[in-house]
Amino acid sequence: MRFDIITIFPDFFGSTLEYGVLSRARSTGLVRIDVHDLRSFTHDRHRTVDDRPFGGGEGMVLKPQPIYDAISSLAVTPKADRDASRESVILLSAQGRSFTQTVARELSGVERIVLICGRYEGVDERVNELLCDRELSIGDYVLSGGELGAAVIVDAVTRLLPGVLGHPDSTRFESFGVDEQPHAVEPDGAPPRTTAGAGGLLDYPHYTRPAEFQGLAVPEALAGGNHETIRRWRRRMALAKTLRNRPELLERAVLDDDDRRMLRELEQEQSRS
Ligand code: SAM
Questions:
Q1: Distance CA 268, CA 273 (A)
Q2: pLDDT at position 268 over 90
Q3: 172-272 maps to which CATH number?
Q4: What's the distance, Cα to Cα, between the start and end of the chain in Å?
Q5: Whole-number mean pLDDT of the chain?
Q6: Any idea which fold 2-158 has?
Q7: Fewer Cβ within 10 Å of end Cβ, the chain: N or C?
Q8: How buried is 183 (Cβ within 10 angstroms: 0-12 exposed, 13-18 middle, 19+ buried)?
Q9: Where are the domains of the chain?
Q10: 70-127 pLDDT, tens per residue?
Q11: Could you tell which of 50, 92, 127 is best to mutate to test the pocket of ligand 1, judged by most ligand atoms within 8 Å of the CB?
Q12: Ligand 1 centroid distance, CA of 229 (Å)
């Protein structure tokens, strides 16, 4: 997988890409990330990347030419011939489609991704029309630039690539996971995987040692070592968290009869509290 990031602030990405999972994925060659300074593709003395908006109004707009030249230098397939499931040019934009775990999964199958970071009032719309096959927003708020969004996409996509995380199940049974419910006991006889929430729910709460901290004990169900008790407690907590924080996710979640029964109980409990 290769990422190219086009930005007027290339230094922004220095430390962002140098820690943990991303750093390991880069050093083991599973992912390559190149950051390109948009100003290198300007042709005037002042290295101008922006200009005033047609129609008037506040702020400046990123000019199309430097971005066009930057993309040309990367030898990306022209938009009309591009297979967006293999190669994708993405504009970061508050007006874009929402970047979700589903989109991250879709992008993890793409071999090459170019991310264009906007600034100021945004990017000349012809960049979107001529070059981009996706326009993505990382959330319903306005950031001052696309760099944070690009870093979010690189991180979320990279950790889904085969071989990047230690255990392949880590990305199957976590928040927003689409897989079936986790087993009480894994086929290899191991206890339930530590990140076994899933089915489209949020993950359940996690605990580690000490068993008691500031007067709060670890839930009894987890301390006992009974795999089925642990599995049911985790499922119930995943349902409870989803119901409390993101109830709309329940509409698309994969639920069985037992889940629905627990959910009814939780709805009653939460309406009382
Ligand atoms: N005028 C734009 C609007 O109202 O939608 C906001 C422009 S914003 C200040 C500058 C740049 O930040 C955008 O071009 C985009 O690249 C990036 N940006 C801002 N919010 C974003 C978001 N929610 N997701 C992704 N990129 C965002």
A1: 9
A2: yes
A3: 1.10.1270.20
A4: 48
A5: 92
A6: Alpha/beta knot (3.40.1280)
A7: C
A8: middle
A9: 2-158, 172-272
A10: 999 999 999 999 999 999 999 999 999 999 999 999 999 999 999 999 999 999 999 9
A11: 92
A12: 46
